Amino acid sequence: MTLAISIPKDNWRFTNDFSYNPCREIFFGGYDKVYTEDTLIEVVEPAGLFIGLMLSGSPTSIQMDGVGEIEIPVGRPVVLAFSEETLCTNKYNSGDFCAGVGLHIKFCSHPETRGRSFGKAISYLEKRFGGQADLEILPRSSELLKLAEQAFRIPNTAGFYELEIEAVLLSFLAVLCQIAEESHQYKGLNSLTLRERKRVKSVIEFLRENLEHTPSLNDLAQLTGVNPGTLADNFKTAYGKTIFAYYRDLRLQTAQSILRSERTSVTEAGMRVGYSSSAAFSTAYRKQFGRAPSQEIQEKM
After folding, report:
1. What is the mean pLDDT of residues 106-113?
2. Whole-angstrom distance, CA of residue 210 vs CA of residue 247
3. Residues whose CB falls within 8 Å of the CB of residue 40, separated by 6 or more in sequence, listed in order
4. Which residue, 91, 98, 126, 140, could crosslink 130 as a Cys pair with Cβ 3.0–4.6 Å?
5. Distance between CA 256 and CA 287 in Å, rounded?
6. What are residue 187's phi and psi, to 5 degrees?
């Protein structure tokens, strides 16, 4: 089924929005807006997931602290995974139009999830995406688009507004989990065409040569001559993980090799693979290998 990914402005009520927060782990909201002036949005995302679906407007990008620029396409759900609090910035120019919905899921040590269905969805999504990917672009879904539009059309003055919006949210979660499950399987590099394999391998080569500066998905797409969604799909099919998850692993594996084979400091090793903060590098290293990078130096002495 083909998804219409651009909705005329006339189909939307400008500056409309909705929000629903059934429990402290979940926030579901959306808005459509024409920006009347240049606007810089800064948000500190907690540890957890953000699932976004742009319904209309121009593709935009989000700058993630410690990761770089992430391109957000129109019409495809994207999942951003945050292992810790992360500053995200986004800029809109005067006259830009944007319509979309977002689902925030916090990872809490003492959950207060409302209801068995919410708990099951959160547990699945945390297991599926938590700690595995900075960004994953999921396949287009006409069902998700229709549910997002439905959420906008529920009047917040309705007598049973919470019941109606919760029904939409549960359906949205059910479809999202199904899409995520179907996209989880991958067939490996050999399942791609020769052109697709060359495309993915050129990305790998570029990443290996540019460990100090994180490229955006848009940069890599321009390098390979395809749109960001196609490149992301090809890479996930080949390696079973997103480009940025692969890149993070590559940086840390390179840093481990440097620490074990060269005379260097933790700070220098981190900087050589793109970490400007030694604290952030040490945290990522410990999470990846279960030990501090300083232990690699101590064991050589």
Report:
1. 71
2. 10
3. 89, 90, 91
4. 126
5. 13
6. -110, -5
- At 3, which helix (H) or strand (E)? none
Triad 125, 30, 63: Cα angle to 5°: 70
Name residue 20's beta-bridge partners. 28
Model pTM above 0.90:
no
- CA-CA distance, 269 to 274, in Å (whole number)? 9
Q: What's the rounded Cα separation, in Å, for the pair 155 and 271?
A: 52
Residue 159 has pLDDT above 60, yes or no: yes
Q: How is residue 61 written in tokens? A: 């990008």
Q: What is the C-alpha to C-alpha distance for residues 166 and 164, in angstroms, rounded to an integer? A: 5
Query: Rounded distance, CA 57 to CA 299, Å?
Result: 54
Helices (H) and strands (E) in the chain, counts: 10, 10
Q: Which residue has the tokens 């507004």?
A: 161
Closest to 101 in 3D by CA, of 49, 30, 150? 30
What mean pLDDT value characterizes the chain?
Answer: 83
Query: What are the b/e assignments for 83-103, b being 16+ CB within 10 Å?
Result: eeebebebebeeebbbbbbbb
Cα 48 off chain centre by: 10
Q: Decide: helix, strand or coil at residue 45.
A: strand
Structure tokens, 42: 């800064």
